[in-house]
Amino acid sequence: MTRGGEGFVDRQLLQENLKRFFGGSGHSHPVYYYFPYLFSLGLPWSLFFPFLLWDLVKKSRTGGDDHLFVKSWFVIMFVFFSLSAGKRSVYLLPIYPPLSLLLAEWIYQQNRSLGWRLVLYRAVAAVAVATGVVLLIISFGAIWNHEPGWFFGPIASLLKPKDRANLLVVQNALNTFGAIFTVLLLVIAGFWLALAQAFWYGAIRRAAVVDLDVHQGDGTAAIFEADPDILTISLHGKNNFPFRKQQSKIDVEFADGTGDDEYLSELSRILPEVGRFSPDIVFFQSGVDALATDRLGKLSLTPSGMRRRDEMVLSLPFPLVVTLGGGYSDPIEATVEAHFATFISSSALRAASPVSARSDGDPVPNRTFPHES
């Protein structure tokens, strides 16, 4: 300020700020000017703004407000810019970060959406599909034709000269990335398409993890220990790695040498918890290192017991993802055959059994069931 002297103070502080706030400086608009821009510039996410704002007001009235800073950020800046005589749509940009945070948290907290909310979710899903498809076209176009003008040219023809110059700057910057930009576009396209699927079905809100590898699912347990919307179940060897166990929502520990009867009895007792939790999706970690032939498992399940285990989990009436787990049998063919049987059972049982829609379940308290055979 001292270097700029009076000219700097007059132009930057008085003319560019105070005069623009009180006088408009050629951009005077009414106080409601920003409302349509708030929604148009925020599409497709602004479809959720009415529900978001309504829920935030209700939460504030009940005294359960834990987003005061972010809400104040949005409200104060929006009111400030609305009261300013000088208004331009670009001035709204600083309010979208707090809105994004509030909206992301709001979407995460929603249960499966019904009625008008589901209609809006599917409208966003349609936009997400369109975005993903456009990004795929750009990506494959860049692979097929290394000259990006095929894509930017038609866009430039629709723009004003100043905007065309800005587009050229963007195009030149993207050119410097080369193949990295193409790979990044493919990843982003995949993200938008996955997002579209989640929104079309009302989003995945609750998930269950059934980990039947002989080693505890300690990473999953630690990550989701405090998350009431993720049910973590682990049936594992008490005296096996990891030796410092984490706390799953439900842990069942087996003594060395546990066989089919004891194992399957415990599994049949635990699986109804998944039904009571009523998840949107179940992840089945299908390790086969509980076989008696496994060099590291320390349990004594037979191949038929392992197949019965798989059938019990695969019969759950929820969307299910099967992931490969451990297996260290000697001979190794026993591990291969057990994994193969899991996926054969998965294909057969899931094709024959339709999944049911979930209803809201209750949180499951953390429990550990030591089981001595």
Please provide a written account of the structure.
With 373 residues, the chain is of the alpha/beta class. It has three domains: 5-109, no CATH class; 115-200, no CATH class; 208-371, 3-Layer(aba) Sandwich (Arginase, Chain A), CATH 3.40.800. Helix content is 53%, strand content 9%. The protein contains 14 helices and six strands. The chain has helices spanning 5-23, 34-40, 49-61, 68-83, 96-109, 115-144, 149-156, 161-175, 179-200, 218-223, 260-270, 272-277, 303-314, 333-352, and strands spanning 207-211, 230-237, 250-254, 281-285, 320-323, 367-371. Strands 5-4-1-2-3-6 form a six-stranded parallel beta sheet, covered by helices on one side. Strand 1, helix 10 and strand 2 form a beta-alpha-beta unit. Helix 4 packs across helix 5, helix 6 (115-144) runs antiparallel to helix 9 (179-200) and helix 11 runs parallel beside helix 13 (303-314). The longest helix is centred in the middle third of the chain and has 30 residues, at 115-144. The radius of gyration is 28 Å and the shape is elongated. Mean pLDDT is 79; it is low at 356-364 and 368-373.
